[in-house]
């Protein structure tokens, strides 16, 4: 029988509990000893992940992570830093923090959810308190939507009961069956308690390609007007983005009560990336692999990418998503 480090630590705390224990009684002895984390939480949490031992979020560290790893997304950076740091510094939030990230593939939505998780829990996406749901994987069949609703409520209720500061990430919201996400509406609303559980300290993050066309239209209009993309304000995007997502029949948010009841705190637009941003991604990837940055390779990889619209060729149609695999070709030379 193998014991985890936490179990070993707890056995050391109470040697009398397992002294001369008969094999048949070992399970019962361990069960009693493992409850020692209630009496010795600090020692227990040195060996096992504990909800109460989450990282103290540093606004400066989160800002630095986003500045060093996320390119071309001035709106997303500002919203994420202010929303997440403000929420976590509030000891008594009125409702869970709910962020909906929108934009084309490769613009950084998944990357940002990863950065948020890593700045709150040491294990990041691998933490037992961070939960990822992928629409096409976890909710594939429209015929099972009633079952999925029940399961989703059960999963969220159970995890928040175990850790109030749980993080839930829903990927591919544009592929989720309409109506399914409304099952969690009570958990996102302004209730102190729902069925004896408080959800006010939880974080919900939704990732979607829905609304990307609207975001591109605004970015392209600014480009055609000779304005810098950094001049785009959240007010130029957010209201129209919310309406676009709400009315998109191919979105999991189609006519959703989450939007209708204003339970999404921020609709965060991720702008399409330009040529210069791809080069930034390539440089960072080369450095992360231990290579010196070779601008000749950077240019070759960037030039292989495809851009849209067809005539203007301003924005990368895949963002930074495929630059890493294309980089492999040149680094193997």
Number of strands: 7
| Shape designation | globular
- Secondary structure class reads alpha/beta
Low-confidence runs: 1-34
Helix proportion range: 40-55%
List the helices and strands in order.
HHHHHEHEHHEHEHHHEHHEEH
What proportion strand? 5-15%
Rg estimate, integer Å: 23 Å
Tell me about the largest β-sheet: 5 strands, parallel
N-to-C span? 49 Å
Give the spatial strand order of the biggest sheet: 2-3-4-1-5
The helix count comes to 15
Mean pLDDT: 88
Description:
Its main location: other. GO terms for molecular function: ATP binding; ATP hydrolysis activity; ATP-dependent protein folding chaperone; identical protein binding; kinesin binding; misfolded protein binding. It comes from Nannospalax galili. It holds the Pfam family TOR1A_C. The strands form two sheets. A five-stranded parallel β-sheet has the order 2-3-4-1-5. A two-stranded antiparallel ribbon has the order 6-7. It starts with a helix and ends with a helix. The chain has 333 residues and is α/β, with parallel strands linked by helices. It contains 15 helices and seven strands.
Name a few traits of the molecule:
alpha/beta, 333 residues, five-stranded parallel β-sheet, disordered N terminus, 9% strand, two-stranded antiparallel ribbon
């Amino acid at each position: 029988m193998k014991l985890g480090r936490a179990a070993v630590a707890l056995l050391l705390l109470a040697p009398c509990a397992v002294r001369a224990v008969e094999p048949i009684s070992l399970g019962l002895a361990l069960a009693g000893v493992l409850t020692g984390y209630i009496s010795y939480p600090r020692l227990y949490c040195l060996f096992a992940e504990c909800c109460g031992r989450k990282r103290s979020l540093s606004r400066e560290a989160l800002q630095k992570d986003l500045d060093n790893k996320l390119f071309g997304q001035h709106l997303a950076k500002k919203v994420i830093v202010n929303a997440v740091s403000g929420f976590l510094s509030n000891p008594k939030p009125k409702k869970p923090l709910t962020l909906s990230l929108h934009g084309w593939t490769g613009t950084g939505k998944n990357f940002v959810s990863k950065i948020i998780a890593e700045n709150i829990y040491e294990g990041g996406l691998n933490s037992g308190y961070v939960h990822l749901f992928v629409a096409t994987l976890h909710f594939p069949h429209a015929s099972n939507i009633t079952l999925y609703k029940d399961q989703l409520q059960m999963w969220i209720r159970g995890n928040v009961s175990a850790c109030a500061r749980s993080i839930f990430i829903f990927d591919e919201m544009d592929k989720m069956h309409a109506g399914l996400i409304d099952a969690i509406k009570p958990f996102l609303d302004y209730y102190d308690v729902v069925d004896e559980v408080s959800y006010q300290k939880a974080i919900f993050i939704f990732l979607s390609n829905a609304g990307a066309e609207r975001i591109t239209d605004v970015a392209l209009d600014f480009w055609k007007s000779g304005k810098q993309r950094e001049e785009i304000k959240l007010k130029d995007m957010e209201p129209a983005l919310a309406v676009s997502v709400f009315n998109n029949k191919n979105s999991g948010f189609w006519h959703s009560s989450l939007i209708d009841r204003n339970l999404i705190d921020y609709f965060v637009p991720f702008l399409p990336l330009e040529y210069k941003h791809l080069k930034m991604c390539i440089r960072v990837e080369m450095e992360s692999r231990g290579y010196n940055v070779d601008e000749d390779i950077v240019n070759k990889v960037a030039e292989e990418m495809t851009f849209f619209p067809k005539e203007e060729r301003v924005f990368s149609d895949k963002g930074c998503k495929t630059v890493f695999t294309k980089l492999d070709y040149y680094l193997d030379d």
